[in-house]
């Protein structure tokens, strides 16, 4: 087991980029923004793979994430396709849905209580 103090120092040991901005002609590319975009793309890709492995339609996670990003937090996003288990519901909520449409509500609630 690693000591908690070592784990706390691990992020501090990751070096920062020497140059935080790369200029591609007139367009500045910022390292921080690039890392955020890569993180979002990886999260949607992993979420989509897991969703498809559970029998969901390909692209659903990406659609929900895109809708959430487009409309912002003020407007609700409803996911209503292929949500059959508690894990499916959590995946859609993680992708950005704040409303779920499902015909397996009782089953999902029973799984959530366990």
Count of individual domains: 1
Instruction: Kindly state the percentage of residues in helix.
Output: 55-70%
Strand arrangement in the largest pleated sheet? 1-2
Tell me the structural class.
mainly alpha
Q: Please, what is the oligomeric state? A: single chain
Radius of gyration: 19 Å
User: N-to-C terminal Cα separation, in Å?
Assistant: 30 Å
Spans of 5+ residues with little confidence (pLDDT < 50)? none
Name the beta content range. Answer: 5-15%
H and E string: HEEHHEHEH
DSSP helix count? 5
What is the number of beta strands?
Answer: 4
Label the overall shape: elongated
Major pleated sheet = 2 strands, antiparallel
Question: Mean pLDDT score, rounded?
Answer: 81
List the helices and strands and how they pair.
Elements (H helix, E strand, L loop, with lengths): L3 H10 L7 E4 L2 E4 H23 L6 H12 L6 E2 L6 H10 L3 E2 L4 H9 L1
Parallel strand pairs: 3-4
Antiparallel strand pairs: 1-2
Describe this structure in words.
The longest helix has 23 residues, at 31-53. The strands form two sheets. The protein has a two-stranded antiparallel sheet with strand order 1-2. A two-stranded parallel ribbon has the order 3-4. It is built from five helices and four strands, in the order H-E-E-H-H-E-H-E-H. The protein is mainly alpha-helical and 114 residues long. It has one domain. Strand 3, helix 4 and strand 4 (99-100) form a beta-alpha-beta unit. The protein has helices at residues 4-13, 31-53, 60-71, 86-95, 105-113, and strands at 21-24, 27-30, 78-79, 99-100.
